[in-house]
Amino acid sequence: MEELTNFRPLAGYSTLDGGRFKAGLLYRGGQIADLTPTQLAFLRDRLKISKVIDFRSLAERTQYPDSTWSGLDYEPIDVLVDAKKSGVSIEGMVYHAGDIGDVMLATYEQLAISSSAQQGYQQFLEELVDTPQPTFFHCFAGKDRTGVASALILKIAGVSDQEIFDDYLKTNQSRKKANEKILAQLSDQLTEAQQKALGQALVVDQRYLQRFFVTVNQHYGNFETYLTDGLKLSPNFVTLFRHQYVDRV
């Protein structure tokens, strides 16, 4: 099958209390515009994906609309609509050439504390519990907005921090070919400094996700309070989530 960029299941991870994250329910990746018939059939028929959550902006969705299929529940949730300088689009990455690391760190702060991110992740997580079904969630590259969403899921499930960061960093290998293609296509349009900045922006760095969790702790004291006071999730949400998504071994 033709490769789906940065696509992988959230499954099989061990939890600190002896459980295992269930397979066949959650998948993460990059945008799914212009799927081939084989790719679409893989998502629809093989994996039985019945819901897609799209974290991209309206402009991104308009330029590259997702491929959909009959019976699919497609839901856009723009988690960075409040961020003024997110740097998550290619244009933003190029514009900030030279200080892209600072831009990305600021983006992860926004993903922790902006109203749109908190409301968006609240909606996303509550729907996972209220209507569990094979779900694919994504943004443009499947690395930042999606990376935080994945980290939230695994943290709530009780997966170790080491495995959470390992899953996050898999993106750099999974996106290698796609990133090389983007850089090649834009090489004659960008200065050397812009190419370097874009190359840096197209990968993830452990510091970025660390900044997200540090920001959470700075504003809420701990992750549990962030869930209840920041994301406005119910006090028993973690229990409900683990009941749906974690098997007891």
Which SSEs are present, and which pair or pack?
Elements lengths: L7 E3 L8 E3 L4 E4 L7 H10 L4 E4 L3 H6 L9 E4 L13 H6 L4 H14 L1 H16 L4 E4 L6 H13 L3 H14 L1 H11 L5 H10 L4 H15 L2 H8 L6 H9 E3 L1
Parallel strand pairs: 3-6, 4-5, 4-6
Antiparallel strand pairs: 1-3, 2-7
Helix pairs in contact: 4-5, 4-10, 6-7, 10-11
Family: Belongs to the protein-tyrosine phosphatase family.
InterPro entries: Prot-tyrosine_phosphatase-like, Tyr/Ser_Pase_IphP-type, Tyr_Pase_AS
Protein name: Tyrosine-protein phosphatase
Structural summary, described in words:
The protein has 249 residues and is an alpha/beta fold. The protein has a single domain (8-235), classed as Protein-Tyrosine Phosphatase, Chain A. It is built from twelve helices and seven strands. The strands form two sheets. The protein has a five-stranded mixed β-sheet, with helices on one face. A two-stranded antiparallel ribbon has the order 2-7. Helix 2 (58-63) links the parallel strand 4 and strand 5 (73-76). The radius of gyration is 18 Å and the shape is globular. It comes from Lentilactobacillus raoultii. Belongs to the protein-tyrosine phosphatase family. InterPro entries: Prot-tyrosine_phosphatase-like, Tyr/Ser_Pase_IphP-type, Tyr_Pase_AS.
- β-sheet strand percentage: 5-15%
Mean pLDDT equals: 92
The strand count comes to 7
User: What's the CATH topology label?
Assistant: Protein-Tyrosine Phosphatase, Chain A
Low-confidence parts, pLDDT < 50 over ≥5 residues? none
**Order of secondary-structure elements:** EEEHEHEHHHEHHHHHHHE
- What is the molecular shape? globular
Indicate the CATH architecture: Alpha-Beta Complex
